[in-house]
Write a structure and sequence with these properties.
The protein is an alpha+beta fold. It contains seven helices and 13 strands. The radius of gyration is 23 Å and the shape is globular.
């Protein structure tokens, strides 16, 4: 038996017509002829392809930030997006971007935390050598703060710094990461659409995100060259930080078998410890 639902219809800004209707669980939105009777707004719309791409990007962001919710999108009657609502972010990433099993194998899990600052970072990032997952613009970087899509300079620069010297200029590996932090230490009201935010400690957020993204790439290279170290919860590792300039040369005769594709430099990060008041109230 269909569940009881509500249908709301609005035509050209008229009073909404609300009536009960039988429907399956969920929400369906059907938008047609946007601004057809508002010429002043209509003329500012961009080309149809550009507007449809913006709609698709908004739906992709919702699907990635809420993997437990099933989303489907049709543009001009053609399926553009469908997710299963499995609750698994890895599955959502594969479904949103249409990744095959082979391509998805180039993604590295991100799981990093700092209890002292109350920060956590989870997600997936493309390996620097997974060229099939590299794009030509920063739109390949999807950053979320407390389950809301944001494109703020601090996070963007942290992602860029994490890939510095690892990929060619103009190449942007796919990156989907969700940062969680106490809401009282971030101002989300600095942008009308809440796409930009202001942090109480931007430098610490930058260092944390950069280290959190560097860690899985570091561990992947260790696994390839020396064998995998034991992973600990929160993105920590029982292996010491890898420093290519000191760890390889002369270390028990171990030498790289080829050029080092991941010239990391310093990717160290020292988590803070709880001190009773890690953030200003």
């Amino acid at each position: 038996m269909d569940a009881a639902g509500t249908q709301v219809a609005v035509d050209g800004g008229s009073e909404p017509v609300v009536q009960p209707v039988g429907c399956a669980p969920g929400t369906v939105m059907d938008v047609r002829d946007l601004f057809f009777n508002v010429p002043a707004r209509l003329k500012f719309l961009k080309r149809p392809a550009t507007e449809l791409a913006a709609v698709e990007e908004a739906m992709q962001a919702l699907a990635l930030s809420h993997p437990a919710v099933r989303f489907s999108l049709a543009l001009d009657g053609k399926p553009a997006l469908a997710t299963s609502g499995s609750g698994d972010l890895a599955t959502a990433v594969r479904e949103v971007f249409g990744l095959s099993a082979d391509k998805a194998g180039g993604l590295l899990p991100v799981d990093f935390g700092d209890p002292g600052l109350g920060l956590s970072l989870v997600g997936w990032v493309a390996s620097p050598d997974a060229l099939a997952l590299h794009k030509r613009s920063k739109k390949a970087w999807w950053t979320f703060l407390n389950r809301r899509a944001v494109r703020c300079p601090v996070l963007s620069k942290a992602v860029e710094a994490a890939f510095e010297s690892l990929v060619p200029h103009g190449s942007y590996p796919l990156c989907v990461v969700a940062l969680a932090m106490p809401p009282q230490v971030v101002d989300v009201n600095v942008h009308p659409a809440k796409r930009e935010v202001r942090y109480a400690r931007p430098n610490e957020v930058f260092a944390f995100v950069k280290a959190g993204l560097r860690r899985p790439m570091e561990e992947a290279f260790q696994a390839r060259m020396l064998g995998a170290p034991t992973a600990l919860p929160g993105g920590q590792s029982d292996a010491p930080p890898w420093r290519p300039e000191t760890d390889f040369p002369g270390q028990a005769g171990i030498q790289p078998t080829g050029p080092n594709p991941l010239a990391f430099g310093s990717a160290s990060y020292t988590p803070t410890r709880p001190s009773g008041g890690p953030w200003p109230s």
